[in-house]
Write a structure and sequence with these properties.
11 helices, about 190 residues, mainly alpha
């Protein structure tokens, strides 16, 4: 009952089983016991955010920032909260701050690229996606990355490049009707 790490692991097990509210309760208790563990508070914020509890997520992420403002995951989750609230520019600032602390982190690069796309900045989205692609071996890029590259190329009027990226995307993972549609449109 007083071991924060045991509660944290138990919370993760509950989360994987689908017992979300029980997992959050265990993680909150772990946070109360551990106090100064920024990664724990960050994970709690992530759990809250995935359940749509943005206020609790915000409180947890702010607690994590007080403990360690240089932890990239804190800024990533904070940006996710802002993005959920429709505050895309502010979210981008936080995502870029996360990228400053972890410049080759794939998850952060993908989020930054998606934000640029949502903000209708295809050139910056494409630059970010190309940086992300460089973190993979040639031919190992995930379909999502290729799909977003294709959308960026199309938005820039580079239809042949877009069609090539979209064609590669449908071969990498379970293609969706939207992927085929975008490929055909390109």
């Amino acid at each position: 009952p007083v071991d924060a790490e045991a509660r944290r692991h138990y919370a993760e097990s509950l989360w994987r089983r689908g017992a979300r509210s029980e997992a959050v309760a265990q993680m909150e208790e772990a946070g109360r016991l551990a106090g100064e563990d920024a990664s724990l508070w960050t994970r709690l914020a992530e759990m809250h955010l995935s359940q749509g509890h943005t206020e609790q997520a915000w409180q947890s992420v702010e607690r994590a920032l007080e403990i360690d403002p240089k932890l990239p995951e804190v800024w990533l989750i904070r940006g996710g909260i802002l993005r959920t609230a429709g505050r895309h520019r502010e979210a981008l600032v936080d995502q870029l701050r996360a990228l400053r602390y972890a410049p080759r982190d794939r998850r952060i690069l993908l989020d930054v690229a998606e934000l640029y796309r949502e903000l209708n900045e295809p050139e910056r989205a494409l630059q970010t996606l190309q940086t992300l692609s460089e973190t993979y071996s040639p031919g190992e890029e995930p379909g999502r990355v290729l799909f977003l590259q294709g959308l960026a190329y199309v938005a820039l009027g580079r239809y042949d490049d877009g069609a090539a990226s979209l064609a590669a995307a449908v071969t990498r993972e379970n293609p969706t009707p939207e992927m085929y549609y975008r490929w055909g449109a390109a």
